[in-house]
Write a structure and sequence with these properties.
The chain is mainly α. The protein is 46% helix and 5% strand. It has a 5-stranded parallel sheet with strand order 3-2-1-4-5, with helices on both faces. Strands 6-7 form a two-stranded antiparallel ribbon. The radius of gyration is 24 Å and the shape is globular.
């Protein structure tokens, strides 16, 4: 007996790879007899930037698990798997299925990338199908609310937004005042490890691949064999249940010391006291409210101190919501920002990890292998070098979008262009995050295993970070010397004799000639010194 044709579609529910929310508003009036969910895997999403294997596998495996969860709930899912169809882009795949399924309406929440937020509705218009966009209840703050808050402000600052949102949502508040008597405990969140390194550090909960994930891993290893990274230790949480287990594990074992050591780094220790929840939250496998509430509950039970809990809440309710608001407020022009006139190509070792700079080597290899580095490795190692070197903002943005498992453009782009590279000229952060190799030495053990001396800007063992730091200050002195928050840092240039400063400029220029887009290594930079 031949298969019956599927019933006509009333609502085609579009679900993208970062919208895996079973409580999404797109399902509010779902009719199993007339509606269908549409999901598609396409090569373009892995190849528009040269994505790591881990990033590709996390997206595909999480999507397939979500597909299966929907089908278990009796929902019809039109799923286009990468290994079974040839549509090169999401737009092409959607256009083909609109022609076949002929729905009355497409229902979606706003995509997390400006490009798709424009192109997918355009596909529907071309097909003569209505596009209906539902409210995204995953976040605390809607982009329209953020725009209202930002109205009239020349500069957008996290601290003021964070206070406003905490008050509005009544998070860590008591009788109108912040719990603990202070709005933030950032000063207590900058601890570094002693010579013995991190102690009492249990490994985070692992999630070995099941049959669905193993199928994805095999597909990625075959289809994207030339992409960077490896998958033999792949163990990310990929379902809501696993995300909840990861949250419980973090709260029980690492949250109490997260605050003190959230900025610290240690060689060959990728996870430290961090949660490993960013990808799960960005894919909407777990609600940020649930994550925040679990941390606050740990404080109320006396399990974790206020410094740890507030610091963690600030990352989620504060920074995560802030960068999303900034993204939608400033796109698409944000992509073109380059306030510091950076024009250097991205060094090739960002794709190989082959460099004698120990901090970069560890952070880059960890990133390429695991698709992960914590926020200080991203900001003050890989991001700092790009800032000091003067890498073109679009190039370093594309690299960050390609390499991290949690990279969705609404969160990645503002973090890179606004915070890390100061490409927006201070609209988002008050000053550049510029530092010498001494910062990395203070916050890690990288320098102990490196041939470069972070205290030296000149000589055979001079640290490239330190040389480039002083050169960066010198190149941008006119802009920042009288800056209210950065001026003191820039006025340190006055203590350096002109002859020494000239030598630093020359060495920085030689660094740029040596470390270029065709260079595989920063080793043996100046053999004749």
């Amino acid at each position: 007996m031949p298969d019956r044709a599927p019933p006509a579609v009333r609502h085609l529910i579009v679900v993208l790879g970062d919208q895996l929310d079973l409580a999404s508003t797109v399902f509010d009036d779902f009719d199993p007899d007339r509606d269908a969910v549409w999901m598609a895997e396409v090569a373009h999403e892995a190849e528009q930037v040269w994505s790591t294997k881990a990033r590709i596998a996390v997206f595909l495996a999480a999507m397939r698990h979500f597909r299966d969860a929907l089908r278990e709930r009796g929902r019809r899912v039109e799923y286009r798997a990468l290994d079974r169809h040839a549509h090169p882009t999401l737009e092409a795949a959607l256009a083909a299925d609109l022609a076949t399924l002929r729905p009355e309406r497409v229902v979606a929440v706003r995509p997390g990338e400006w490009r798709l937020a424009q192109s997918l509705p355009a596909v529907c218009r071309e097909a003569g199908v209505a596009w209906s966009e539902r409210i995204d209840t995953h976040f605390y703050c809607d982009p329209h609310d953020f725009a209202d808050w930002a109205k009239g402000k020349k500069e957008l600052r996290l601290e003021f937004f964070y206070r406003w949102l905490r008050k509005r949502e009544d998070v860590l508040m008591a009788d109108g005042e912040p719990v603990g008597g202070r709005w933030n405990f950032d000063a207590e969140n900058r601890g570094s490890f002693g010579k013995r390194g991190p102690e009492r550090l249990p490994k985070p909960r692992a999630f070995p691949p099941d049959a669905t994930t193993r199928e994805v891993v095999a597909l990625v290893e075959s289809r994207f064999a030339s992409h960077p990274g490896r998958l033999h230790d792949f163990d990310w949480p990929l379902t809501p249940a696993q995300a909840q287990d990861a949250l419980d594990d973090f709260v029980a074992h690492r949250l109490p010391l997260f605050g003190q050591y959230q900025d610290a780094m240690w060689r060959d220790a990728p996870w430290l006291y961090h949660s490993r929840l960013s990808a799960a939250m960005n894919f909407k496998l777990i609600s940020p409210r649930r994550v925040v509430d679990a941390a606050i509950d740990a404080y109320r039970r006396g399990h974790a101190p206020i410094e740890a809990v507030e610091g963690f809440v600030r990352q989620i309710l504060g920074w995560r919501e802030f960068v999303r608001g900034v993204y939608w407020l400033r796109m698409p022009g944000f992509l073109d920002d380059n306030a510091l006139g950076a024009d250097a190509p991205l060094p090739a070792f960002y794709w190989t990890g082959r460099t004698e700079m120990a901090c970069l080597r560890d952070a880059l290899r960890q990133t390429l292998d695991l698709g992960y580095a914590h926020h200080i490795q991203r900001l003050m190692v890989t991001g700092l070098f790009a800032l000091l070197f003067g890498v073109r903002p679009r190039e370093i943005h594309a690299w960050y979008l390609a390499v991290y498992v949690d990279a969705v453009e609404w969160v990645e782009l503002p973090n890179v262009l606004g915070m890390s590279q100061y490409a927006d000229g201070g609209k988002m952060v008050s000053k550049p995050y510029a530092a010498s190799g001494k910062y990395i030495q203070r916050m890690s053990n990288y320098c102990a295993g490196c041939r470069f001396d972070p205290g030296e800007a000149l000589g055979p063992n001079a640290c490239p970070f330190t040389t480039l730091y002083w050169d960066f200050l010198d190149r941008h002195a006119d802009r920042f010397r009288d800056h209210p928050r950065a001026g003191m840092q820039w006025r340190n240039l006055d203590r350096i004799p002109e002859e020494r400063m000239r030598a630093i400029r020359e060495r920085a220029a030689r660094l740029r000639e040596t470390i270029d887009a065709t260079s595989a290594d920063a080793a043996s930079l100046f053999p004749n010194d």
